[in-house]
Structure formats: C-alpha cells, structure tokens
Design brief:
The chain is an alpha+beta fold. It has three domains: 6-55 and 113-226 and 269-288, no CATH class; 291-411, Alpha-Beta Plaits, CATH 3.30.70; 416-523, Alpha-Beta Plaits (2-Layer Sandwich). The chain has 17 helices and 17 strands. A hairpin with a 2-residue loop joins strand 7 (311-312) and strand 8. The model is unreliable at 59-63 and 77-101 (pLDDT under 50). This is tRNA pseudouridine synthase Pus10.
Length: 533
C-alpha cells in the first residue's frame, strides 16, 4: 500500500506553495504506487487539497492506496547524521501557516511545475501520447513490443536538488524528522504514466528488452543556463567530449551535484526553484529498430570487381563491388537506414572466389521491416543472383549478432584453398616442379606486403603452407593448388615481394616467378549453416 501520512503534510504544503505539480509532490513523498501517478492531474490536486484539510490528529493514510511493486530510487544526497526529531512531548510540531489548502492549490494550478518543467503535466496527457503514436505509426516499422526512452534537460537535476534542499530546510526548521533521503525518479514516474497509454494506443506491450525503441527528447531553452554555475564550482566534471554539443550533459551535471557542497549550491541557485513561464519542448520523437543481421556465402566470378567500393583520394575506380551488389537488395527489402558489411577475409579485385564461396554478414541498421519467412529469404537470394553475372550468393539467412562472431573466429583459425596460375622466366619441365607436391607444412615469414603497407601495420607474420599440388601446363606456366593457413599472402608467396616473403616459389625453383591468375577455391569456415535448395 502506498500512501501519504501525517508526516508528509509539511512537504505537501511547502511544495504546493512553491509551485510544484501534484505528481512531483508524490515523488518527493516517495509514493511508489504506479496507478496513483496515472490519475488525472486535476484529481490529484483535489486529493492533495483534501489531504491538507484533513485532521492533523489522523494517523491513517488518505485514500491513495494501490498495491504495486517497489520502485527504483534516485539518491539525492547522503542522509545526515542526527536528523531532527519530534519535539520533547512526542507530538508533531505545528506547521507555520502558508495559507489554506485552497490557496496552496490555486498557487500551483495552471502553473508550469518548478521541478519537472511540465513533463509530468502536459506531456502525460492523451493528446501528447497520440502525437507520439502517430509518429510511430507513420514511420511504418514492424514491431511486436516497444521500449520507451526519454531524454531530459540536465537542469531538471539542479531544480530537483534545489526543491529537495527546500524540503530538508523546512523540516529542519520545524524540528521534524526526514525519514527518507531519496525520491522517485522523474523518468520512472513518467514511464509509469506513459507506458500503459502507449501500449493501448499501439496495441503492443512495453518490454524493457524490446529491440524497437520509441524515444522522446525534451528541452527547456528558458532554463538552459541554470547548470552553468556548476562548471565554476566543479570544473573537473565538465570536459569536452566527442559527439557532445555541450559539456552540460545529464551525467556531468549529476556528478557535479554529488560533489558540490550544500552551502555552495545555495549561494548560486534559488531554493526553492522559481516557476518557469514556459513548458518543456518535445524536440524529437524518434523510432529505432535494433539491427537485423543477414548472412550467407558469395561467389565472385569477375576479375574486375572489388569486394568493397574502391575509392582512392575521393575518386571511385570501379563502378560496383560485391558489397554493393548484395546490399542494395537487402537495403530495399528491409528498408534500413544503412548497413555494415563484413566477411571471412577478402580477395583482391582481380581474384575470383569459387567453390562454396566466402562467408559474409551484413548488419542492417534501423530496419523498418524485420520479419521474413524462409521462402521470402529464398526469393531475395534469387533476386540478388538474377541481378548480376559477377556474383552469386547462397545460404542467405537471418542470423544473430552473436553468431557473426563464429565467422570472425574462423577468419584466422581455418584454412583456405587456392589455385594460382604461375609464370617462370626460365623454361621448366614437369620434374622441375614435382618436388613441390612433397612439401608439407612449409613455414613462411611474411613481412607486410608493399601493396598493403598503406593500410596495414609493418610486421613479420609467420604463416603455413599446409600442402601444394602442381599441374604442369607448358615450359613457362604451371598451376599450383595450395592449402594454406588463413591470412597467408599468396601472391607474395609466389613472386617473393622483393624478398619480403621467405621462402617463396621463385626461391624454391631458383628462378623468377610471377602470378598471372589467382582463385580462391574454398574458405573452410563452417558458417553460416548450409540451407537446402
């Protein structure tokens, strides 16, 4: 049971007199009844008025009784030792008259709350809830639940502290004990009120684990500068950060309020805080769906197609890429804002990827559509494959974020199989290359290749050539099939990269060798799962 008691009377009287709204008064009295906060503003005001009129000898609670689970608390300050107590005869001292209950009610009615700046007033009403829901519906998202988040102006924390210090001072002056030193968080109370209304209007439940987020950003330009005195009192709390337009973030302000002394705070900020002229502004109402992940394998049949867009000094070198040929269809179907492409390794622009293909995954950011059947995914795969003869995809499927980690693990741990067409400057016979077939677990020292040194750190990497099988073509050409450790630079193993890869085919054959063509024949990563045709 949540209720107001006789001990709450001075708090209610003080806050009403200073322009605090009924719901904030309930917060300061630590009322934890969710249902109570959902009562209309006018009804709550009447209840508080009746409470102030009620007999002070009554020890029973007023009719503010709904059972609810305990709420989280926002600790405003450390409770002081030796708090005031009842007077010497054990009775509650008389509260100095601040006008009748009606006068207190009239002083708060129609005003913008001096603590929440109107958030627990106008922005709890049905009209605002409908405005939020219209925004959600017009955005055309698929969702089966939602999580609601709210961003509050940082100066609310300052005003809350000022109001609390006013309560604390009043209770001290009256010689009354302050039994609690925390209040119900504004965000928590707001969500208690908003959640059921949004849920009813949208037809889906509120769920803290939902991937679909509805967010509201509030601002109050009239009081924006109220935090600024904290930067002088606690400069260490306000440091510029990336992607932050102002140093006065909510967390920075809360940190400063924890550090500043009570007497220093009271020198710079009115206590209790004054009532503003204007309500908060709802600057933004936004929707965001959690990312969806699509995985598969791709084959690349072109020797003139990069894996990702090839742009040098702002100039595009080739018109398309594997990434774009796949993602343009996914972006269209999932109606996403953007995407992130990743794969198990990568091939050069002139290298084909054959066999079962290379595993890849695409993160689709903020998709409007998230539900696809297996048949719909199959049709999407067919659409990708029908759009270009340069690539093909297989095993296209929805996966979890966690599953993508398996692809990245395999990138360095697994083996890869290649086919290389090699040229030699001196004539060769079959017997000249036959010995390559007998070499097993050949250890290489590969210094970062010159061709990738602009994007990779300089290092010497130890790699293994597990097996090789040669296929004689003519006096100057042969094909070499290699099974290697993932991460091996095959081109450099063939031509030596000016001695940066040792040993190499040229040094093994004692002649100059170069690579004319390279194909990836298999990427031995057992992911994603193979799908039936």
């Amino acid at each position: 049971m949540s209720s107001l008691t006789e001990k709450d009377r001075p708090i209610v009287q003080l806050l009403l007199n200073t322009g605090t709204c009924p719901r904030c008064i309930l917060r300061f009295c630590c009322v934890g009844s969710q249902m109570l906060y959902r009562h209309p503003h006018e009804d709550l005001m009447k209840d508080l008025q009746e409470f102030l009129k009620s007999s002070r000898e009554e020890d029973d609670a007023v009719c503010l009784d709904v059972a609810d689970p305990p709420c989280k608390r926002l600790r405003l300050e450390h409770r002081e030792e030796g708090a005031g107590d009842l007077n010497h005869n054990g009775a509650i001292p008389q509260l100095p008259s601040a006008g009748t209950g009606n006068a207190a009610t009239e002083s708060s009615a129609g005003k913008v709350c001096n603590v929440c700046l109107g958030i627990l007033q106008e922005f709890c009403e049905a009209d605002f809830v409908k405005k939020v829901c219209q925004k959600v519906i017009s955005a055309d998202y698929q969702f089966t639940s939602f999580v609601f988040s709210v961003s509050l102006p940082p100066q609310l924390s300052v005003r809350e502290r000022a109001a609390w210090l006013g309560v604390k001072q009043q209770m001290r002056n009256l010689g009354l004990p302050l039994a609690k030193d925390d209040i119900v968080q504004l965000k928590e109370a707001y969500k208690w009120i908003i959640h059921p209304q949004l849920s009813e209007e949208l037809g889906v439940p509120a769920d803290g684990k939902s991937l679909f987020e509805v967010s509201v950003v509030f601002a109050h330009p009239e009081t924006d500068e109220e935090c600024h005195f904290l930067a002088t009192a606690c400069p260490d709390c306000f440091k510029p950060a990336k992607n932050k337009q102002s140093v006065f973030t909510r967390m920075a302000v809360i940190k400063a309020l924890e550090k500043i002394k009570e007497e220093d705070f009271l020198k710079h900020f009115p206590c209790p805080p004054s009532s503003p002229k204007n309500l908060c502004d709802a600057l933004e109402i936004q929707c965001n769906n959690g990312a969806v992940f699509v995985a598969g394998r791709y084959n690349k049949y072109s020797r003139n197609l990069p894996q990702t867009p090839w742009i040098i000094d702002g100039e595009r070198k080739l018109e398309s890429s594997v990434e774009e040929l796949i993602s343009e269809h996914l972006m269209s179907e999932f109606k996403a804002d953007s995407f992130n492409f990743s794969s198990s390794g990568r091939e050069d622009v002139d290298v084909r990827t054959l066999g079962n293909g290379r595993p890849f995954a695409i993160e689709l950011v903020n998709p409007r559509r998230i539900h696809f059947t297996a048949e719909e995914m199959k049709r999407l795969q067919q659409a990708i494959n029908g759009s270009s003869d340069k690539i093909q995809v297989r095993d296209l499927q929805l996966v979890t974020r966690e599953a993508i980690g398996r692809m990245k693990e395999g990138e360095e741990e697994k083996t890869k199989t290649y086919s290389a067409l090699i040229w030699t400057d001196k004539a060769i016979q079959r017997e000249d290359i036959a010995f390559l077939d007998d070499i097993k677990e050949l250890k290489l020292d590969q210094k970062t290749p010159l061709r990738v040194l602009h994007r990779r750190p300089l290092a010497v990497r130890c790699r293994l050539i597990h097996t090789m099988k040669s296929e004689y073509i003519d006096e100057h050409h042969f094909r070499l099939h290699l099974k290697t450790q993932a991460g091996t630079y095959i081109k450099e193993f063939v031509h030596g990269d000016f001695g940066r890869t040792k040993p190499n085919i040229g040094s093994l054959l004692n002649r100059t060798a170069d690579i004319l063509e390279l194909d990836v024949e298999s990427v031995d990563v057992d992911w994603p799962p193979t799908l039936a045709d």
